[in-house]
Amino acid sequence: MEILPKLIVFSAPSGAGKTTLVRHLLSKEELNLAFSVSAASRGARDGEQNGKDYYFLGIQEFKSRIRANDFLEFEEVYKDQFYGTLKNEVERLWSEGKNVIFDIDVVGGLRLKKKFPNRTLAIFVKPPSINELQIRLKKRKTESAEKIAMRVAKASTEMATAPQFDVIIRNDDLAAAKSSAYEIVYGFINKKVSNDEKE
Is 49 helix (H, G, I), strand (E, B) or coil? Predict the structure, then answer.
């Protein structure tokens, strides 16, 4: 039995607070976490940096990388808006001995869990309600009313996937959610995995 590098997946509807929880955990050195930067087919928004926020590939290159089987998982989240996890990104971080943490959509999160069942902890972050989600998205002031409506409509479908995750963290009290996330992740990464459980 040995402790192998793990995958920690955080998924949630947009605005549920998963990014805040991921950032909190990344600040804890003892967890030995590294963030997996996703690839995106869209261009960078103001202030975003290639290789830090996303790998901005453009639609044609993204589709070409799909054909080359370069992704562990990918999803067309909205029409012609693809996001995915590159195999070489995870391999690079694992080779550094890091536990890899993800902030990805529910479909991608469940695909990673299926691919690496014993080495992945899949966490669903649940907002207090869809109404609260809408309020949070409006407060961000980063997207149009139409885009917010799209995200809220999608949230109901995403919430229905929650039981398929290993753990559900309800984020109605941020301090409690941070504490809960830390305890769960700390316990998981220190769990030994036997050789026959390696994927």
Answer: coil
- The whole-model pTM stands at 0.86
pLDDT for 117-151, tens place per residue?
A: 999 999 999 987 777 777 777 777 777 888 878 77
User: Which CATH number among 3.40.50.720, 3.90.76.10, 3.40.50.300, 3.30.540.10 corresponds to the domain 7-192?
Assistant: 3.40.50.300
Calpha distance 187→199 (Å, rounded):
20
Q: Is the Cα dihedral 96, 30, 109, 14 positive or negative?
A: negative
Dump pLDDT digits (tens) for 154-164. 888 898 999 99
DSSP 68: T
Q: How many CB atoms lie within 10 A of CB 61?
A: 13
Q: Which residue, 32, 163, 43, 39, is CA-closest to 104? A: 39
Residue pointed to by tokens 């959509």: 105
